[in-house]
Amino acid sequence: MQISDSSSRILAGLLEARTGQQLTMSRRWRLETALSALLRERGISTLDELITILVMGKEPNLSQRVVEALLNNETYFFRDRSPFDLLACHALPELAQRRKDQRKLKIWSAGCSTGQEVYSLAMLFAEQPDAWRGWTIDILGTDVSTGCIDRARSGAYTQFEVQRGLGINQMIRWFEEAPDGWRAVEPLRKPVRFQVHNLLEMPPHPGGFDIVLCRNVLLYLSAEKRILAFERLAGAMAEDGWLMLGAGETVIGQTNKLGADLKARGLYRLTGDGTRIEKRQTDRRNSATGA
Ligand SMILES: C[S@@+](CC[C@H](N)C(=O)[O-])C[C@H]1O[C@@H](n2cnc3c(N)ncnc32)[C@H](O)[C@@H]1O
Questions:
Q1: Which residues have any ligand 1 atom within 6 Å of their CB?
Q2: pLDDT of the residue at 13
């Protein structure tokens, strides 16, 4: 199936306007594959015909479906594994200390796709019930795709999906058999909630997140949109919170609001506020020692 340059530009423009994601030339080759199921479902025979319907604006839901079909939703449980070890061994023990009076943690996964990242986080807590007993853990997953959020909310995964990233023991412990595969058990679903949200808009309620994950989302944003995204992410963090990006993503050279946490490679902190925290800790130590 051929697609004209002008049609592919219209699709790229639509995607970028709604999500900030750019369709690189290499991704433009995949337009046809990405949209084939939607074309079949709607009985539309060519991409150019789809564009004509879009431009006429007679089917308001169609443009959202097109955008969702063009997004890259690749994800799996404990993706890249080591970031979760970093959270479990560094960030969570430190937060357990710092928040021991409030006993409340807020985590935001921005661009959570179908929810595997969020349920992986929930597993970190569920696997240490004694450490987190009496704590309120709020893990919010957001994505610009309504289809992804519906799936994430259901907590239901196919056999193939549930096996990607989970060992057999984790799968049996945290998922129960469901009609079409597996469904996350109640203790895993309890701390999580999901919401449709565009990362480029104001951060979701309640803000002040102790940990923000935005992994494998910023890669295809234009430089300008990426700056905006970092502003939104920074604005959503607690002053002593952490940001985690995907492998191959960095804040370096992209924003001055965030900087690498020198004690935990792969985690980022607010620069201004982070400095204040380091300073407060040093001040406290100095006053304790009389220095
Ligand atoms: C490749 S997936 C990554 C999922 C997960 N974070 C991971 O690393 O496995 C990227 C997700 O970001 C979402 N996304 C893209 N642009 C977004 C935006 N502007 N706001 C919120 N989500 C967005 C996509 O819909 C997609 O589900």
A1: 19-21, 71-75, 79, 111-113, 117, 143-145, 148, 198-200, 215-217, 246
A2: 94
Q: How far is CA 62 from CA 8, 143, 152, in A?
A: 16, 18, 22
Report residues of the chain scoring pLDDT below 50: 273-284, 291
Biggest alpha carbon–alpha carbon distance for the chain: 78
Report the C-alpha gap between 50 and 36 in whole angstroms: 11
Measuring CA to CA, how many Å separate 178 from each of 56, 154, 156, 181, 185?
A: 42, 11, 8, 5, 11
- Could you report the per-residue pLDDT of 57-72, keeping only the tens digit for each? 888 799 999 999 999 9
Counting from 1 in the atom list of ligand 1, the atom nearest the Cα of 116 is 9
Q: What is the mean pLDDT of the chain?
A: 91
Atom of ligand 1 nearest to the CA of 113: 27
Report the run of H or E that residue 73 belongs to, with start and end: none
Residue pair 230/255 in contact by the 8 Å Cβ criterion: yes
47-56 and 5-19 helices, crossing angle to 10° = 50
Distance CA 41, CA 48 (A): 16
Alpha carbon of 222 to those of 17, 75, 162, 254, 257: distances in Å? Answer: 11, 22, 33, 11, 18
For ligand 1, atom 7, the nearest C-alpha belongs to 75
Other beta carbons within 10 Å of 155: 23
CA distance 23 to 26: 8
d(CA 170, CA 159): 13
